[in-house]
Write a structure and sequence with these properties.
Endonuclease, Chain A, eight-stranded mixed β-sheet, 17 strands, alpha/beta, 508 residues, globular, 45% helix
Length: 508
């Protein structure tokens, strides 16, 4: 009994959840008591809730996010409005996350190479709007002079990344949603410690909520004691607030400004299939060498400055120092929940809307807003071969139920849906028409599109796109296709419950 109690007390996720529930219960209890003393409180709270409903309707938030809040507030007018003020997407909550700090804007004037926008537009004019949109919103341009390498499993990236980490001479930047001690992290940590002793600058960012069950509370201090500059991003404080949802979901490694890694692979043993509870863990990532790494470096430094509230004065010393012959163009980009631009979703929708022959997508979670559903179904109804691959073995059963609730509408419109039967598909990719693809951290769900810091790399042309397409076809060959028989065998009660959960999907 003592051991069980000790585990509960030592689990920050459980303790934090209990504290948040207690705070919500205290708010409800306090309002109930005020109501018994001051009957007008009920009327005042109801008026407040109605005002907030009107405010929500007038806001520019996505309707799929607004509707669940409106329903909850109308059902519980006594405290629904107050909970929205505490938990919802309000200017007050957003300002607490922004903490009035503006990182430096990217400056590529001193790079060894020049951005390749004009060359890309001349060679592939139909991609002009997308590359211009990304640069306008994020400040991150498209590059040539970059070699691209595609990894179809996490194990391959791990081996390549360790080899490059050992070669580091100037600096190493690492930013991950999850870091967990084990067979993957320990060799990396050993290399980082060795490099620190040799005078290499090492910085590490990890997300506190992502590592809440993986790392000790003050692991950042342990890393600092080893000589590593470390930041625990957005420390988990169990209070009623919305900025707890703003997580750093990115996965980036930059070595000496010349080599960069980005994709779905975190640093934990399941990502290299050393300890997976969900069958074969399928993940993908990219290695960039050359000019395009500059965008990844800037993204890391921007996040470092935001998290530490300090400016890295000399960005120029972290720029690429080499060029590599590339057979296409690359544009790494980031997305932030702290502005009004949903860059990740917009890039996906641009690819879907501009497709001429096919669009293939892999995603571990499928929780879509109406705009994305319309884009996918319209493409399929227009004769585009639209295929979506999701996991056959879920890691989150609740979200998996919501994922499956979208199948019928998509399927009836002609979208082909597959479930990866060997295990859990964690890869986040889209490829279209043999000339454009994105590999990164962006799930097809509300959290990635609206609440998380994310990143991805757009590939324009090059052999890596063919490798991505071939890999997706291999994944489909190992997957079960969703068809009429599958729908016939789905229990109607499960389908109804999933539809109800879908209504609350933006809050999951």
């Amino acid at each position: 009994m003592k051991k069980i109690l000790g585990r509960i007390i030592g689990d920050r996720r459980i303790v934090g959840g209990i504290l948040i529930i207690l705070q919500a219960a205290f708010v409800i209890w306090g309002l109930s008591n005020l109501l018994s003393i001051f009957p007008w409180v009920d009327f005042a709270c109801t008026i407040l809730s109605l005002i907030i409903v009107v405010w929500i309707v007038r806001k520019y938030d996505n309707p799929a996010y607004k509707i669940p809040w409106i329903i909850l507030i109308l059902i519980f007018p006594l405290f629904g409005g107050l909970f929205y003020l505490i938990w919802g997407n309000t200017p007050f909550n957003r300002s607490r996350a922004q903490h009035k700090f503006e990182p430096m804007k990217p400056d590529f004037s001193k790079n060894i190479s020049t951005p390749a926008k004009d060359r890309l537009i001349a060679a592939m004019p139909r991609h002009e709007r997308r590359t211009q949109y990304i640069e306008n919103i994020t400040g991150l341009p498209v590059w040539g002079e970059t070699t691209t390498r595609y990894f179809s499993v996490g194990e391959h990236q791990f081996d390549a990344m360790c080899a490059e980490l050992r070669k580091a001479k100037e600096f190493i930047f690492m930013e991950y949603f999850i870091i967990e001690p084990g067979e993957m992290w320990q060799p990396i940590l050993d290399i980082l410690c060795e490099k620190v002793k040799n005078g290499v600058e090492v910085r590490v960012i990890y997300d506190d909520a992502g590592c809440i069950t993986k790392l000790p509370l003050n692991y950042d201090k342990y890393l600092i004691s080893l000589g590593i500059k470390a930041v625990r991003f957005n420390r988990f404080v169990p209070t009623l607030n919305t900025y707890l949802n703003y997580r750093d979901h990115r996965k980036i490694t930059v070595i000496d400004g010349n080599v960069g890694y980005m994709g779905g692979t975190n640093i934990a043993d399941e990502y290299i299939n050393r300890n997976s509870k969900f069958g074969h863990w399928k993940d993908t990532s990219l290695e960039l060498r050359g000019a395009g790494v500059a965008n990844m470096t800037e993204m890391f430094l921007e996040m470092w400055e935001y998290a530490t509230r300090t400016i890295t004065s000399n960005h120029a010393k972290y720029k690429p120092t080499i060029e590599r012959p590339g057979d296409g163009y690359v544009q790494p980009f980031g997305d932030s929940p702290l502005d009004d631009f949903n860059v990740g979703e917009t890039v996906y929708m641009q690819i879907i809307n501009n497709a001429r022959r096919y669009v293939y997508i892999t995603t571990p979670y499928l929780v879509l807003d109406n705009e994305m559903v319309i884009a996918l179904t319209t493409a399929a109804q227009s004769g585009i071969d639209v295929r979506i691959i999701t996991p056959g073995v879920p890691d989150k059963k609740l979200v998996y139920s919501v994922t499956r609730s979208f199948y019928q509408q998509l399927y009836r419109s002609g979208v082909k849906i597959y479930e990866y039967t060997p295990g859990f598909l964690h890869a986040k990719m889209i490829v279209s028409d043999d000339d454009v693809a994105v590999v990164g951290t962006i799930n097809m769900d509300f959290r990635s599109f609206f609440m998380h810091f994310e990143c991805g790399t757009v590939l324009y042309g090059g052999k890596a796109i063919e490798e991505i397409k071939n890999d997706m076809q291999e994944i489909m060959a190992q997957s079960r296709i969703i068809d009429d028989i599958w729908f016939h065998n789905t229990p109607w009660l499960s389908s109804i419950l999933a539809s109800i959960l879908r209504l609350l999907a933006p809050m999951l």
